[in-house]
Amino acid sequence: MKTPLVTIFFLAHNYEKNLEKAVKPILEQSYPNIEIIISDNQSTDNTQKAIRQIQSKHPKVISRKNIPGINTDQFHDVDTKDTSTKVYDACLNHCNGCINSGLAKGEFIIFCHQDDIYQKNIIKKEVEFLMAHPKVAGVFTLANIINKDDKVVGKWNLPKELRGKSTYHFSEIFKAVLHHGNTFLLPPTFMARKEIFANMGLFDDHGSFGCSADLEMWLRILEKYQIGILQENLIHYRDGGRGAKYNQLRTQTSDFFKVMDYYLIDKGYIASTDKKSLRQYEYQKDFDNTLRAMNFLMQGQIQEAKKIINASFSWEYFRALFENIKIVRIKVLILKVTLFIGLNLGLGEYLRKMFLALRV
Fold first, then answer.
1. Burial readout 35-46 (b: 16 or more C-beta within 10 A, e: otherwise)
2. For residues 109 and 192, is the Cβ–Cβ distance under 8 A?
3. pLDDT reading at 43 higher than 70
4. What is the C-alpha to C-alpha distance for residues 360 and 357, in angstroms, rounded to an integer?
5. Neighbour tally for 316: CB within 10 Å
6. In what residue span(s) does the Glycosyltransferase 2-like domain sit (predicted)?
7. Residues in contact with 188: Cβ distance below 8 Å, sequence separation at least 6, in sequence order
8. Alpha-carbon 147 to chain mean position
9. 3-state class (DSSP) for residue 251
10. d(CA 131, CA 127)
């Protein structure tokens, strides 16, 4: 079997203490033909020193410094709470910088994240898949979820309707995302053919899609190509990362809906989408609104929380709930009912203190 070169961009930022530990699984990959490029995104600690220490032991490791492709004085990263400037996604901007650097010599590219732990065979298995499926643009894998102590606390599952096969068209993935959200296309697992980015363009890192610009890229690719999903947990995905930071006390509507509304409405896919899928999508908006109401409450904005939660009950809500019932949905229903009763009985301040105590 051929062993084409794989370019591994390892995305680093302020990770001096754990960088060598994080890079170790990449250095120990079972696939033989790789080039490793550690890309440092404006670290303010001693990450550069840590990179040099790695290079002293592994001279073939390449180092680059990422320079954002935008004027960051006019933007704020999606992870921050600043609302005075336009938004950009530092991680996806970092990926774009790697693509534009011209350093990648490999036929395939993967962007490895510093918080996650990659299994020894992930590169080998993804290359084998892409070699066996020449029409597929790129491939994802599933993942275990680990906490800050590297203990496995869960796993990312593939929706039932996607199991039993390995390659997918736009319609299959789009429908699954309408039903379940973007819970199974994991960016740090994605290996792509290098020419895909030349054909499809870069991540929309400072557009209207915020931290869901990765999903927009996957859907953009799927409009022209198939993708693959290996149904193996080939990385340990760190809990409490960028997604958790983004959702912590978030009161604005999730960026996820900006992407999906763009494809449904602006691009016209709503015309070919079945009613059940649209109900499930509306359920996801309600799910998000329940979390927003809780966050408004925790920030002391009791009337705003009450306004959102009182508008959230409908027959269509319950119909969608029982069409796709899950434990997490039952938990959110309990939260919704608790908020509805408590806020309408004037117990908002009591609920706020209770939720704040539970979060601590």
1. bbbbbbbebeee
2. yes
3. yes
4. 5
5. 13
6. 8-64
7. 111, 112, 113, 116, 235, 237
8. 17
9. coil
10. 6
